[in-house]
Amino acid sequence: MASLFRYVALGDSSGVGVGSGNDGGYPERLYRRLKAHGVPAGILNLAQSGAQSRDVLRLHVQRAAEKQPALVTVGIGANDLWRLVSAEEFSDNLQAIAEVLQRSGARVVVSNLVDLGRAPAAKMAQSWLGITPQMITERVLLFNARIAKLGERPGFEVVDLFGPSHAELSGPTGYFSGDGFHPSAHGYDRWAELAWPAVQRASGLPLPAPAGRGSG
Q1: Total domains in the fold of the chain
Q2: Is 60 exceeded by the pLDDT of residue 201?
Q3: Of 56, 138, 158, 216, which has the fewest CB atoms closer than 10 Å, so is most exposed?
């Protein structure tokens, strides 16, 4: 019998799946894909609604490492961004989280932030807080620059959600749920789709051949 492929998810409400209609977030979708491809995977989802990077650092990352996971996914930062945590504090928390995970020997897949300046909630933030959508996008870019640095660590891979979202969210896409902030089921599907190649690499699954390449 093949040994269990331990998958641990760290993050916030997007890891929980808020907005998906009880269909789970992107970790559950990635887990289902692993199972469908024959990987003997088990999942421990430590994501928590409302979590910031400091919560993952203080409450969850050590527990994740103790499980000796083969794969860890990390999706964090949106709550730090909305609650005006500085990019420097966010970066310090990220690096401390990464130190613990790197010592665990797990392969780590980290998602950056979508362009939240294009979320419906961005317009509400402008009326409530005086923060424009452009200011939110600029802040996302600051956070994503910190997340990108994790990709320099051995065993870490960063998934770009920002680039596709910046292009795809220019019109109505159904990406966001009714609250205008959390992804919808469709949004989580897209997130998992973008993260899947990195998860494939982490799990040792073969990647599909490039389109258009013949066998001869």
Answers
A1: 1
A2: yes
A3: 216
DSSP letters along 11-53, please?
ESHHHHTTTSSSS--HHHHHHHHHHHTT--EEEEE---TT--H
Main-chain dihedrals φ then ψ at residue 76, nearest 5 degrees: -145, 155
Q: Which of 72, 104, 115, 110 is nearest to 91 (CA)?
A: 110
CA distances from 171 to 48, 192, 194 (A): 30, 21, 19
The C-alpha atoms of residue 215 and residue 205 are separated, in whole angstroms, by 20
pLDDT of residue 210: 54
* pLDDT per residue as tens digits for the range 85-139: 999 999 999 999 999 999 999 999 999 999 998 888 887 777 777 789 899 999 9
* CATH code of the domain covering residue 147: 3.40.50.1110
Domain assignment present for residue 212? The answer is no
Length of the chain measured in residues: 216
Alpha carbon 110 to chain centroid, angstroms: 6
In the chain, what's the furthest Cα-to-Cα distance?
61
**Rounded CA separation 158/113 (Å):** 11
pLDDT value of residue 209: 54
The string of pLDDT tens digits covering residues 54-76 is 999 999 999 999 999 999 999 99
Range of 81's domain?
5-203
Radius of gyration in angstroms for the set of CA atoms belonging to the chain, rounded to a whole number:
17
